[in-house]
Amino acid sequence: MRLVIMGPPGAGKGTQADGIASRLGIPHISTGDIFRANVAQGTALGIEAKRYMDAGEYVPDGVTNSMVRDRLNQADCKPGFLLDGYPRTLEQVGELDSMLNAGGAALDRALELTVDVDEVVTRLVKRAQEQGRADDTEDVIRRRLEVYAEQTAPLTALYAKRNVLSQVDGMGAVEEVTARLLKVLGV
What we know:
By secondary structure, the protein is an alpha/beta fold. It has one domain: Rossmann fold. It has nine helices and five strands. The protein has a five-stranded parallel β-sheet with strand order 2-3-1-4-5, with helices on both faces. Helix 1 packs across helix 9 and helix 4 runs parallel beside helix 5 (90-102). The protein is globular. The mean pLDDT is 89.
């Protein structure tokens, strides 16, 4: 399966993506993890990405698209993948479509986790305290939520029009949300 998981920061995408990808035997590809690894390694990409991440903005499409293209061309993605954090803009949807079309494939399902905004802020503040993540200040979290609403939310309309969108309640215990996602996927 070729899947995308969407939802605002803090919706539990990473946690759910790990479990779903493991269950399906496909790689979980998180752009956030790729960005953080590059920042930690001090690569040119990491330095550029960090400027945007620290401001709560998205890393530019050109940088992100190149990273995703390289990753999807790796052998472990042949049977499928679960993208977490990509695409985030309509332009990135077009780029993903081009990547998949080049290989004669298409996206099977776009999963959107829906959550309460106040709960998201609480989750992210708690995660920042537990993990010492400097990029998760309350101001940055609120800005990310604004950016999500402005730039990413329109993707749901496009994927709904293509009949590949499944909106899933992301509130509740991890196991409950996982069960809802697996039911939508027919697994």
